[in-house]
Amino acid sequence: MSPSMTPTTPLADGEEVLQSFRADRATYVRTNTWMAAVAMGAGMVILWLLGNPYVWTGAVGGLAAVAVRAFYLMSEALSERWDLTNQRILGPMTRAIPLGSIKQLNTLGSVVQIVTHSGDKYLIKYQTAPKATIAAIQRASVGGHP
């Protein structure tokens, strides 16, 4: 059986879930569509540079590679959930990030990257509005509600 992609860490005394962040299906599809376009172009350029007369096969290969990857990872990626509490961010399985340990919040496309003071990095993937996710985390970090 595969591990749960939702938080399994129990809440501490006085801790409450303020907001949950789930992966969005449309954002997942859009992200993988862009990846496929880049892979198709890269495959064609590589074959052209190598002098291959069948440059078009690079597009087919790039599309196939990303499509297979997207298909196999979709159920896991879309089942991920992160919970923002008044004390921590709880991630899939037992990931727990105290709000006070957050050094930096970054966006990478549809992904929110959390960097801690110790250098650990976490990704909240496929967010429809990554800047809104960051704003909610920042509000909770200073004691407000998202």
Automatic annotation (TrEMBL):
- Segments spanning the bilayer are 32-50, 56-74
Q: What are the entry keywords?
A: Membrane, Transmembrane, Transmembrane helix
What domain of life does the native source organism fall in?
A: Bacteria
The protein in question is named PH domain-containing protein
- Native organism is Shimia aestuarii
